Amino acid sequence: xxxxxxxxxxxxxxxxxxxxxxxxxxxxxxxxxxxxxxxxxxxxxxxxxxxxxxxxxxxxxxxxxxxxxxxxxxxxxxxxxxxxxxxxxxxxxxxxxxxxxxxxxxxxxxxxxxxxxxxxxxxxxxxxxxxxxxxxxxxxxxxxxxxxxxxxxxxxxxxxxxxxxxxxxxxxxxxxxxxxxxxxxxxxxxxxxxxxxxxxxxxx
Length: 204
Description:
The chain is an all-alpha fold. The chain has one domain (3-201). Helices cover 77% and strands 0% of the residues. The longest helix is centred in the middle third of the chain and has 26 residues, at 115-140. The radius of gyration is 15 Å and the shape is globular.
């Protein structure tokens, strides 16, 4: 299992119940949706860092986070603070760009959630993804190129986990965004997400 993905999911584990309660769904649905959203976010960040400008912007964001606001890694604040929610929305926009809407719609279809539910889930997950990446940057003393390399390798490892996940992350490469919802719903996104969770916790 890809290391960064595993770390993010462990950081999110205690908050799944809170996410489920906040968006109005059961924990199994929330867990599967989160497990499927995180690889897409990793892939989105990998694409962001494919260009020097994007790589530098992400590095600066990880370095210069305002500790007083504490958005990165603080899922609880994302679920209660309007300012934090706005910050989470900005993070999601940077991760997905113009594909945000179709991917959000596709996840909603795959997991039987409303668009507002999926949007709130994504905004809650984004700061944890960033917080875990920020911690990894500090632990490994990564520069901008190092972060880009980490994300690229992580995406490659995730794609290698299963054909379903490889197809799911391939949606990030597509230009015909109008078909994303249909594709994500028929690629077994929910099954892939649930399988990833089981696989992750079955390993040491």
